[in-house]
Design a protein that fits this description.
Radius of gyration: 20 Å
Distance between the termini: 53 Å
CATH class: Alpha Beta
Strand content: 5-15%
Number of helices: 7
Number of strands: 7
Order of helices and strands: EHEHEHEHEHEHHE
Helix content: 25-40%
Number of domains: 1
Bound molecules: nicotinamide-adenine-dinucleotide
CATH superfamily: NAD(P)-binding Rossmann-like Domain
Largest sheet: 7 strands, parallel
Shape: globular
Length: 276
């Protein structure tokens, strides 16, 4: 058998939030590393150049092609310049991974308007802005794929009060549907990943060993998700292997949305006669 052709050979990709907000590996960081390992040239976009430099160092150690671009993706001029940088440095654009997201707290009663607006700006408006400039560049390059990171919190609320997070992540699914509908004939596939309870830098400071364990036990597999689980799904959705898949929400959540692992019927002790 000959050597395997890398799955993203010849592709140019932008990953937003390609650094990690704290110690450990974030989904943007992991995705950028796997994209480069699979042969893509990757523009590592982050508001913190220093964080993206750490991702770059890993990619360079592994012999991949990437470079850092510092940008705040809530700002239209930054988004436009980011896309121009990808074209200038690598000659085109095929893949956009919209990964940036932040938490925001509160029930609908106690959330502040400032928190609500900021979370929507960072989580949802930013994806419209990056896509506004990326879509024409992807069309010019002959087509490609956009991957938006939502969350299971868009589909199923948990006991934590993160209402603006729930609502903005649900908005990402609507945005994905619209983009997939409007740009399918441009040969652009637009898909969404809905990660479940991962252990990443965004949530690590908020977890005790006990809450980390209850996140594990909430899923059907009873194990912990990592940034790499999302990154592998992103490689698939970015690659031509998924050439006939668009407009989907791909849960990466160990079955969290399928069922709850808690016992719901005491079947064995039932004497109702209602057994097969
Ligand atoms: N951890 C989980 O359980 C979980 C579950 C579902 C979805 N997600 C989603 O995964 C994504 C990544 O989370 P994470 O914990 O891996 O990331 P993270 O908190 O490590 O952040 C990644 C990077 O985004 C950058 N960033 C933030 N705002 C930015 C802006 N305005 N412009 C440019 N860069 C900016 C930060 O500097 C940081 O380096 C988010 O969208 C999050 O909502 C996480």
């Amino acid at each position: 058998m000959g050597e395997r052709r890398p799955r993203l050979a010849g592709k140019v990709a932008i990953v937003t939030g390609a650094g990690s907000s704290g110690p450990g590996t974030g989904t943007g960081n992991a995705t950028a590393i796997l994209f480069a390992r699979e042969g893509a040239s990757v523009l590592l976009v982050d508001q913190s150049a220093e964080r993206a430099e750490q991702t770059l160092a890993t990619i360079q150690q592994q012999g991949g092609e990437a470079s850092v671009y510092a940008a705040d993706i809530t700002q239209a001029p930054d988004c436009q310049a980011m896309v121009e940088a990808a074209r200038d440095r690598y000659g085109g654009l095929h893949v956009l991974m919209n990964n940036v997201g932040i938490l925001g707290y509160g029930t609908v009663v106690d959330v502040t308007e400032e928190t609500w607006d900021r979370v929507f700006e960072v989580n949802l408006k930013s994806m419209m802005l990056t896509s506004k400039f990326a879509v024409p560049a992807i069309i010019e390059s002959g087509g490609g794929a956009i991957i938006n990171i939502s969350s299971t919190e868009a589909l199923r609320a948990s006991s934590s009060a993160v209402t603006p997070y729930n609502a903005s992540k649900a908005g990402i699914i609507g945005l994905t549907n619209a983009m997939a509908a409007h740009h399918g004939r441009d040969n652009i596939r637009v898909n969404c990943i809905a990660p479940g309870f991962l252990y990443t830098p965004m949530v690590a400071p908020l977890l005790t060993e006990e809450s980390r364990e209850s996140r594990r036990q909430a899923s059907l597999l009873g194990t912990e998700g990592t940034a790499w689980d999302v990154a592998w799904a992103a490689v698939f959705l970015a690659s031509d292997e998924s050439r006939w898949i668009t407009g989907i929400v791909l849960p990466v959540e160990a079955g969290l949305l399928t069922s709850t692992p808690l016992p719901t019927l005491n079947y064995e002790s039932s004497d109702s006669g209602n057994k097969p």
